[in-house]
Request: fold
Amino acid sequence: MRAEKDGLHLSGAEGIFGAKDVQGAASAMVERAMRLKTRPGGIYLSIEPIPLKPKMISALPVSTVKSASVADARSAAEVFLKDAGISSRAIRAALAAIRPPAMRGAALLCAETGRRLDTSKKRGVRASVFGITPGAQKTLQKKLAGCGITHRRAFEAMLLAAKVASCPFILAEFCVSDDPEYATGYVSSRKNGYVRIENLKPKKSPEGGRAFFLEKDAPVEAVIDYLEREPVIISRAGRMRGEICPL
Ligand code: WAQ
Ligand code: MG
Reply:
């Protein structure tokens, strides 16, 4: 589902569902678009069959950095990005990519040089065609609730991050929500899992975006094809690691 107003992207959501759940999921998506703070101009819903046997993966382990300031949050992000093999130059490129206006997708950046690798300047690359089994969803939501993480945004971002991290050429992801009311973002990687970072942007800031860091000489077209088209289903929840402090 994609909702827009006057050509500006408002919200998007997706999932992979069994045939019997398609109608309910579609109706829940439309309801969600109609409940947005801004009434959408257009709501676009598309339903497609999944052609291949989906790849089954686990969700990432989850931890939280309770940073008190944006500066602390950004240094924490830097610590985890560096640990995943991302250069200072590439980290600076990611911070530049989250300035408004927000793209619909993510910037693909070379983890070494910080060079932008995708050519879709305004759109960015969309991670798509992923979902979670009902069993794993129940377990993951229960585990998250046990840690006080109840926001749907966080849950959905974890699914996206799990698919992105399952791409062998991607070393890490950096994400800041473009919602002015939501300042928690994350750094995720196979190395350290999904690390939530509080106060990653100033309160009420419209900035936001995502960067996927590719290892040097990664096959860019194959990575884009994997992210945008390969069906991936999360079939297991990850561990909850609780609060961590990198500094
Ligand atoms: N694929 C790639 N990039 C995307 C996608 C996608 N499917 N959807 C959004 N983006 C990009 C786009 O540039 C947006 O501006 C940016 O990411 C942020 O998107 O655990 O809500 O939907 O509490 O605002 C993090 C939760 C929430 C942290 C992230 O992102 C936590 C969020 P938003
Ligand atoms: Mg958003």
Residues 12, 102-106, 124, 126-128, 151, 153-154, 157, 160, 175, 177-179, 184-186, 196, 208-210 surround pimeloyl-AMP (ligand 1) (CB under 6 Å).
